[in-house]
Amino acid sequence: MTNADILRVSMSQSAIDANCKPEDFLLAESKVVRSAAHPDARKYLDLPFFCSLVSYGTNIVASVHPDFAEPAEAYIHKYSVEHCFETPNLHVLNDDLQQRGMRICEMAEYFLPDLEALQPCSTPFELRLLTPEDFAGLYQEPSWTNALCEKRKHLDVLAIGAYDGERLVGLAGCSADCETMWQIGVDVLPEYRRNGIASALTSRLALETLERGKVPFYCAAWSNLRSVRNAIRSGFRPAWVEMTAKSVEKVAELNRQ
């Protein structure tokens, strides 16, 4: 597998998620498509979207409900690609969304491994490869909510733990969110941070994922600098960004949690 293969797999998956063609992400102009559910989409996505903007850096593909096609078209062609994902321009989109009972909700940056940079990172702690049977008892512990997801535990397929003696001090887990790509999440106990544990776990799990013929990917809010730095140290590089709208009620529910 090469970096070009990895990017191709990722764009193909994004095309499934957005209901477009992979080559749409490479067009000179931004494009609006109609969102639709798909059995091969990433399992955690709430499809069809009302409005989701995706960019691999060249343009924007807006995957939308038909009722929002016209405002989305106007928005993505009025502003430059990078400005469509930030304020003050985002207020324009959000105003149109709120008129329809929706609000901007999820914004994230996604990372893919760079095979020229990906290598096992070192840590003084012992690393152990874990199967679902090994980490089945960890879902109730609040320390591992990024590495494991109780709501979708059937998708958690592989993990690597860092141990201080017999104490688990760091954990990275892989979620099989779709057929071709596994998402990596990582947690380290606060008192054990700054020991290279996160990058050691992330890089090793990425290599294990690639050995199994899957593409690992990593997601972080762009304001979560600690997580972004870990991605870079671990051999990942920024690949694409997404912004998704949810209902006003859903946003309010998330803010209460």
| Low-confidence residue ranges | none
- In DSSP terms (H or I, runs of 4 or more residues), the helix count works out at 7
Task: Give the class from helix and strand content and strand pairing.
Answer: alpha+beta
Q: Write down how many β-strands occur, each being a DSSP E stretch of 2 or more residues.
A: 10
Q: Separation of termini?
A: 41 Å
Task: Work out the helicity level.
Answer: 25-40%
The succession of helices and strands, N to C, reads HEEEHHEEHEEEHEHEH
Biggest sheet descriptor: 10 strands, mixed
What is the beta-strand fraction? 25-35%
Mean pLDDT: 97
Kindly report the spatial arrangement of strands forming the biggest sheet: 1-3-2-10-4-9-8-7-6-5
Radius of gyration: 19 Å
> Which geometry do the CA atoms define?
globular
What does this entry look like structurally?
With 257 residues, the protein is α+β, with helices and mostly antiparallel strands. The protein has helices at 3-18, 69-78, 89-98, 132-135, 197-211, 225-233, 248-256; strands spanning 31-34, 51-55, 61-64, 102-113, 126-130, 156-164, 167-175, 181-188, 215-220, 236-247. A 10-stranded mixed β-sheet has the order 1-3-2-10-4-9-8-7-6-5. The longest helix is centred in the N-terminal third of the chain and has 16 residues, at 3-18. The protein is globular and about 60 Å long. The model has no long low-confidence stretch (mean pLDDT 97).
